[in-house]
User: Fold these one by one.
Assistant:
Number 1:
Amino acid sequence: MSETEPIIELREVNKTFENGTVALKGMNINVFRGEFVSFLGPSGCGKSTVLRMISGLLRPSSGYIEIKKDNFNRDGDTPDIGFVFQDPTLMPWATVEDNVFLPLRLKGKNRNKVRQDIDQILSQVGLKDFRKAYPRELSGGMKMRVSIARALIMKPKLLLMDEPFAALDEMTRFRLNNDVLNFWDSSDLTVIFVTHSVFESVYLSNRVIVMAPRPGRVTADISLKGNYPRTDSYRTTTEYAKNCRFVSKRLMNTVEKI
């Protein structure tokens, strides 16, 4: 699904925080259109920092990050990027529908004109019957579905996901993994996903970037074989087990060198 020319480039990217912590050093990464890339590594390796710099929420201390705007922009200079954080960060006083509508409202959209889009995305995430519910009435998995819907309602070209399922039980995590793959497979979407889980990274991705901390850096860039669409049956295949062993070994080698 990737193309020859990268749509995101990181060149010699370094990040040092004001307290002197060196979060990243010498990051060099290319991301290609249509890829599903996972950043995998232990806590403190700078996975989330990279994601925030790609989104523009943080600036690198040195080096540069280039996002090819022609691949992402519908209009103006703001790239079409969706961001799903580890915490759903929903407005507790607003309904599911209002939370999903928020990005459109901030863009000045009229609710009646985008109601069909809201209905469609709520159906896709399985929350159409909960549109008038409040966050306090939802399970953890349902809250995360709202967060995903809110990120996708703007139809982004790039979706950044920062350990969105880390706090969820395994079965909910599996279901949401499948949901994300369905969104990715059915649209012109590039996904960069942060996770601590070898199994999750292998299930979702066609490429896994292994990182080591102190300072954060890439120790392995692994292209994964495995046909899409992937379903729960893929988890029982020899190919999945082989890929998990290989990625796990590379991660363990990284950790042992710390």
Number 2:
Amino acid sequence: MTFTGFGEAVVDFYDGLLADNSKAYWEDNIDVYKRDVRAPMEALLADLEPEFADLGAGKVFRPNRDVRFARDKSPYKTNCGAVIEAGRGGGAYYVEVSADGMMVGGGCFHLQPDQVARFRQAVDTDLHGPELERIVGALRDSGWDLKGEQLKTKPRGYPDDHPRIDLLRHKSLYAVKRWEPDDTLHEPACLDRVRQAWREVRDFNTWAADHVGVSEQPRRR
């Protein structure tokens, strides 16, 4: 299946799910989800994989939330996301669609302790640290938002006046770009939008793959 755009009902579907996150709503609208959300997302990912699969395998996330350890017991995610990655944290090409429109992202999501250690070790060096500074600075200048969990104070073992102390405080670091719902969301041009955005974040993902990599520790719940 070639990607031709998300279905016309994608935003209304998620607006409805935000208002009624229930099994009854889901079952009443499952055909809309499959036709206007899931199938287009699978087609979008399939069209993008040939260019970006060097980072890893692609997958569309399941719609059900894992509520075993969550206070919020709402059963369904209020977005449909897809990713190409080798493993969480070591670089990722991400895209999601929701009632808010579309979001794309890349970088170091949800780092494990061994990944945080490698991230900081690389940032601390006078070669790889300035390289990441340049990459994230260019992304910020071109309209990307830089996100990620940060320490309120400096990490142990680093001086207060370290030239990259703001980067060292990060326990995760990733870039996102968003578009509100528009006509492009429902058109083949949406593929070009995501492809161009993923190309812009490629250097960040390459840095993450080279210097952070996949965790060897079990995933935290």
